[in-house]
Amino acid sequence: MPQIRINELNIHYNDNQHTGRCVVLLHGWGQNKEMMEPIEQQFKNDFRVINLDLPGFGASDVPFKPWGVYEYTDFLKDFLQELNVDTPILIAHSFGARLAIIFASRYPTQKLILTGAAGIKPKRSLGYHVRVRTYKMAKIVFMLPGLNKHQESMRKFFGSSDYRAISGIMRQSFVKIVNEDLTPLLTKIACPTLLIWGERDDATPLWMGKLMEKKISDAGLVIFEDDDHYAYWNQIIRFNRIVDAFLMDEKENM
Fold first, then answer.
1. Using CA atoms, how far apart are residues 194 and 83, in angstroms rounded to an integer?
2. Residue 186: exposed, middle, or buried by beta-carbon count in 10 A (0-12, 13-18, 19+)?
3. Under DSSP, is residue 150 helix (H, G, I), strand (E, B) or coil?
4. pLDDT, tens digit, for every residue of 60-75?
5. Are 110 and 250 in contact (CB under 8 A)?
6. Number of neighbours of residue 191 by Cβ within 10 angstroms
7. From start to end of the chain, where are the E strands?
8. Domain range summary for the chain, segments of one domain joined by +
9. pTM (two decimals)
10. 232, 153 contact by CB (below 8 A)
């Protein structure tokens, strides 16, 4: 498996070195390039496909300090520049879609395929706000002598499953990332965009996909009925066929 050093970090990736246009695969939070391998295998005969472990995931190094989505996108730009990639096709899931949204709003991008894309600030229920206020009060209480040793248990109790599964720099990065609303950037995306969503996605609900379709000037939304946040994985054959049709012009013009 190839490895490259970007900004003092060792990054592991696959690159088939095809002479066609470049497709870059961006996995979700807590995942790695293995989740994108069925897509890599589908398109490797027609495109140059780069499938990487983002920093802090898989076999790639953890950043030296907490990164937000903009630091991750700066890394992506440097990574692609080092590999002589310009105007890529980006296929991204969940967290990876955050980077794809920023990248496509800033840099030339041929086409964009987003599935279960994160980046829009969620609508918060009353229960969420009560939980946040309780957490803030608990933080004060657990700073008292004799209770501060339980602070980590308290954070895990109140945190999401993604938050509880990580620690250190990546936990701090997660907090920065989930609090970033990328909605204002959607109108800056000019490339053709395909959105594929699970109807019952509870991590990035379908209304987010519909909002992205509305905000991005040249976007279309495909809904996978009765499926969830991993609809692309659960229905990978269907997903690949739809993406293949979306990229048909890119193959014909190679």
1. 25
2. buried
3. helix
4. 999 999 999 999 999 9
5. yes
6. 18
7. 3-6, 9-15, 22-26, 48-52, 89-93, 111-115, 193-198, 219-224
8. 3-121+181-252, 126-172
9. 0.84
10. no
C-alpha count within 13 angstroms, C-beta hemisphere, residue 25: 30
Check: CB of residue 61 under 8 Å from CB of residue 55.
yes
Instruction: Assign domain 3-121+181-252 one CATH number from 3.40.50.720, 2.40.100.10, 3.40.50.300, 3.40.50.1820.
Output: 3.40.50.1820
Q: Report pLDDT digits (tens) over 178-233.
A: 989 999 999 999 999 999 999 999 999 999 999 999 999 999 999 999 999 999 99
Token pair listed for 208: 């987010």
Alpha-carbon distance values, 162 to 151, 166, 170, 171, 173 (Å):
18, 7, 10, 9, 12
Q: Note the residue count of the chain.
A: 254
